[in-house]
Amino acid sequence: MAALDRLARALAGAAPLEPLPSPPEGRNLSPPWDTPKPVRAPLRPPLVTATPIRPPRQPPPSHARLLTAAGETRSIRAWAMQRGIDRRTLAYRLNHGWLVDEALGFTPRHRDHAAEQAPGAESTAKVLIVDGDGKPIPRRQVAALLGIKTTSLTHRLRQYRHPDGSTARVTLASLLAR
Question: Of 121, 124, 93, which is closest to residue 107 (Cα–Cα)?
Answer without folding.
Answer: 93
